[in-house]
Amino acid sequence: MRVSMFILTILLSLGFAKAGVTADNSWLVGVWELTSESKKEFLQFTDEMQVTLVSGKGRKIKGTYQITDDQIKVIYKYKGKKIPISLAYNTSKDTLISQLANTDNEAKYKKSGN
Fold first, then answer.
1. Is residue 113 left, alpha or beta, with left meaning phi > 0 and alpha meaning psi from -120 to 50?
2. For a pLDDT cut of 90, what percent of the chain falls above it?
């Protein structure tokens, strides 16, 4: 009986932890626009932990994401390959910043409608 209660407690805890992910990502869900004036690009985050990068020409690359204490870890799937990207976010959670690996440039995104 005690083992059953212990297992039930663990399962309930895992369920609440999973439910907490949705509440924690509510600030991220929606469309984020690249702030660069020379290039159009959007990130679309869903509450199901899915993300889509949409280029200015309409090309879409789908992936998944996880939120950590200080960044969003994205894994895009493109032509059979996994492409990991990390996006930092500021304390007010209104800007996403990606450091481009091959240059020192940053890509900044603001949530559409902000």
1. left
2. 59
One-letter identity of residue 93: K
Place of tokens 């969003």: 72
Question: Alpha-carbon distance 45 to 90, whole Å?
Answer: 17
Q: Which CATH architecture has domain 2-111?
A: Beta Barrel (2.40)
Task: Work out whether strand 50-55 and strand 41-45 pair parallel, antiparallel, or are unpaired.
Answer: antiparallel
Give the amino acid at 43: L
Of residues 110 and 2, more confidently modeled: 110
- Domain ranges within the chain, ordered by starting residue: 2-111
Is residue 109 within 8 A of residue 33, CB to CB? The reply is yes
The structure's pTM equals 0.74
Mean pLDDT of 80-99: 92
**For 18, what's the count of Cα atoms within 13 Å in the CB-facing half-sphere?**
7
